[in-house]
Design goal:
With 244 residues, the chain is α+β, with helices and mostly antiparallel strands. It is built from four helices and 13 strands. It has helices at 2-13, 151-167, 196-210, 232-235, and strands at residues 15-20, 22-25, 32-37, 40-46, 61-69, 79-92, 98-100, 136-141, 172-177, 181-183, 189-191, 216-220, 237-243. The strands form three sheets. A seven-stranded mixed sheet has the order 1-5-6-4-3-2-7. The protein is globular, with a radius of gyration of 20 Å.
Length: 244
């Protein structure tokens, strides 16, 4: 039991969950985004296009940062968090306007593609590694207290719709929405607003029907999922289960 508690405590020690202002650091290539918590600077990501898993936060707004500390060198002057979820707090905070100049020796990591317009159209559906068969569950993730779909989440919905159409008219498509609580590193708990699970589920069902999936059933869990400080970002979701 003592060993298990030690492992759990060690895992939590590598987690960071906090609300703070985003910080933009200029570099000779692309801007880096950082955030400071408890006297330490953390690296969040770099400016890329909408296909990236990281979406740069807005200045003049605080952000909820949830991530795992990565051992190794600093990136852009900050301790890297990976995976990391960054949710923009909607209320305006004019104090969140820090821009750091480029400094010698502090470089952005390589981007997946260079700056400027994309040279090819966006891929709305990923090329599958293998053919899908049988019951499949597709998970759509959200920023905290939001029902907006980022590009990656929209692509998941498109993939689910494609599989449901492939499965035929007899396929069962069940959509379930959830809202969640985030446990911060300082012990505070943030809970998403009531009604959000239903709104997320109904929005996804509407999108699926618009993509040609007729037989969609919708459900949601009104109570917020509990927070554990480790998996909270994965609990803000809609599940799409397709059963041929």
């Amino acid at each position: 039991m003592v060993g298990l508690l030690t492992i759990c405590a060690g895992a939590l020690a590598q987690q960071r969950s906090f609300v703070a202002c985003p910080i933009v650091r200029d570099t000779k290539t692309v801007p880096c985004f950082l955030s400071e918590y408890d006297g330490e600077m953390y690296y969040l990501g770099i400016q890329q296009d909408i296909t990236s898993d990281f979406h740069p936060p807005q200045l003049k707004h605080e952000v909820l940062v949830e991530g795992t500390v990565v051992q190794g060198p600093r990136v852009c002057g900050g301790i890297p968090l990976q995976p990391v979820s960054v949710s923009v707090v909607k209320e305006i905070n004019l104090a969140c306007n820090t821009l750091l100049p480029a400094e010698p020796g502090i470089d952005a990591p390589p981007a997946l593609r260079g700056p400027g317009p994309a040279s090819r159209p966006l891929e709305l559906v990923k090329v599958p590694g293998k053919s899908l068969t049988g019951r499949q569950e597709f998970t759509v993730l959200y920023s905290f207290d939001d029902d907006y779909l980022e590009f990656g989440a929209s692509r998941v919905v498109t993939e689910a719709a494609s599989y449901a159409r492939q499965a035929g008219a007899a396929a069962s498509v069940k959509v379930a929405g959830y809202r969640a609580t985030s446990l911060l590193s300082n012990g505070q708990r943030l809970t998403e607003k009531a009604g959000l699970a239903e709104k997320r589920a109904q929005n996804i069902a509407t999108l699926l029907r618009g993509l040609g999936v007729a037989a969609v059933t919708v459900d949601w869990k009104s109570e917020a999922e509990p927070g554990d400080g480790r998996t909270d970002a994965s609990r803000r979701r809609v599940s799409i289960v397709v059963s041929p």
